Amino acid sequence: MTTQTSMPIQALRNSVRLSDPHTLAALGRAGAPLLGLADGDRPITLPATAEHLLVATGAGGGTTTLLRTLTAQALALGASVDLIDPGGAGHHWARDLPGVRYLDRIAAIHDHLLVSVASLQDGTSSWDGGWPGRRVMVIEHLGTVAYGLREYWSQTRPETQLDEAPGVEALGVLLASGPAFGIQVFAGNPRVGLPGLGAVPVAQVFPTRVLALGGAALWQRVAPEAWAVPPSSLVPGRMHLVASQQVTAFQALYLSDAEARAFARGVIEPGAPQ
């Protein structure tokens, strides 16, 4: 893997916000959610395909902020969103938005995952590859959700002798097969391994990964193919994209809760004067 650094990391902008003309120009040109800007204000966007995204950061690295920003853009592009936010602490901004199914209780998350897998198995998918009709499943903390699903099953079905909780197995099926049916996962901060998938490499399930404020242990777990760990930065929103055998430093787009709500509803239009 190569590390793409055509300019020093210090040359990146220290913030990328809607109030900046270069940000609005980049959003106006993007046909997919904008992660942020790299050197020379080069837009960094998600792939057009429904491949999954993993955001893995150290504490305070911006996982919730980036997921909020990408979720708002996915809604604006016409996707529906299943927002899995255990405890309801991370994404109040999206609770009652059109196109959002907000799930903050483990019991409801468990049932929803099983229903989602059943819908894949019946083979009735009309997704045509675009953003309209796509389902984006946003999981604030993948490891916490998996732990909660296991605890829920052990407490509600203690008599069963299953090797794995059904909710975790369903999550594994969605991670493995979802993209072919237009189900794309934006996930944050797994603990160890991928729920329901055993020892499958992270890169195989999440071809697109974003890392920030992490040391060698985080890189080894999430992006072991990187031959060198890029230097961390204390600038809020400074991140690295790992995709297509490259590591690219960028400054993440920041949307506040209010901006995310407005953008998702089309109140803020990319490219329009503010």
What topology does this entry show?
Blueprint: E1 2-4, E2 16-17, H1 21-29, E3 34-37, E4 43-45, E5 53-57, H2 63-76, E6 80-84, E7 100-103, H3 106-121, E8 135-139, H4 142-156, H5 166-177, E9 183-188, H6 202-205, E10 208-212, H7 216-222, E11 238-243, E12 246-254, H8 257-264
Parallel strand pairs: 1-12, 2-12, 5-9, 5-10, 6-7, 6-8, 8-9
Antiparallel strand pairs: 3-4, 3-12, 10-11, 11-12
CATH topology: Rossmann fold
Rounded average pLDDT: 88
Second CATH tier, the architecture: 3-Layer(aba) Sandwich
Total count of strands:
12
Fraction in beta strands: 15-25%
State the distance separating the first and last CA atoms. Answer: 40 Å
The stretches of 5 or more residues where confidence is low (pLDDT under 50) are: 2-7
Question: What is the N-to-C order of secondary-structure elements (H for helix, E for strand)?
Answer: EEHEEEHEEHEHHEHEHEEH
What is the CATH class designation? Alpha Beta
Question: Which structural class is indicated by helix and strand composition?
Answer: alpha/beta
> Biggest sheet, in brief?
12 strands, mixed
Radius of gyration: 18 Å
Structural domain tally: 1
Compute the number of helices: 8
Helix content: 25-40%
Quaternary form: single chain
Name given to the CATH homologous superfamily: P-loop containing nucleotide triphosphate hydrolases
Q: Overall 3D geometry?
A: globular
